[in-house]
Specification:
By secondary structure, this protein is mainly alpha-helical. It is about 70% helix and about 10% strand. It has a two-stranded antiparallel sheet with strand order 1-2.
């Protein structure tokens, strides 16, 4: 067996073989953060979700339910098409788009006296519900899309 040495990087002891180079600060931080968040995937998810929410919300009678269905379909298709897991990007994009959509829908009722009172009392809570619904439905849609993709592409 080979000998090993200990190196301290950022106050953490790392063990490595004598022939190997000791770990550096960039090696450790890059390995922990690599693949955690992709701005490109976030932007593409946000665009797809915005289109889905817009199309779903344009259906006259169903309104908010249609927007949430559009979100689910958009994230489902994203999961079906992409080969990598992008749950964080999808959750952030879904939460921000639906939270913004909920806030805008509240502002349209703000011209009424009852609407302004409701907005003052429950506006933040209503926006938080939108963010939670958007993030949750986004992750679930992405998961089911990836699950279907894996089922279709696996060898039997």
């Amino acid at each position: 067996m080979g000998r090993s040495e200990e190196t301290v990087v950022d106050g953490i002891e790392h063990e490595h073989d004598v022939g190997e180079s000791p770990p550096t600060e960039t090696d450790d931080s890059e390995s922990r953060l690599s693949g955690l968040f992709s701005l490109k995937a976030f932007v593409l998810s946000a665009i797809g979700i915005a289109v889905g929410v817009g199309i779903g919300g344009a259906i006259p009678i169903v309104g908010t339910v249609g927007s949430l269905a559009g979100l689910f379909v958009a994230t489902f298709l994203t999961g079906l098409v992409t080969s990598q897991r992008r749950y964080l990007e999808t959750a952030l994009a879904g939460g921000s788009i639906v939270g913004l959509s909920f806030a805008v829908s509240l502002l349209t009722t703000g011209v009424l006296p009852v609407g302004m009172q409701f907005f003052r009392d429950y506006g933040l809570l209503f926006g938080g519900v939108g963010v939670a619904l958007g993030a949750g439905l986004g992750v679930v849609g992405h998961y089911f899309g990836r699950d279907l993709r894996n089922g279709l592409t696996e060898a039997v």
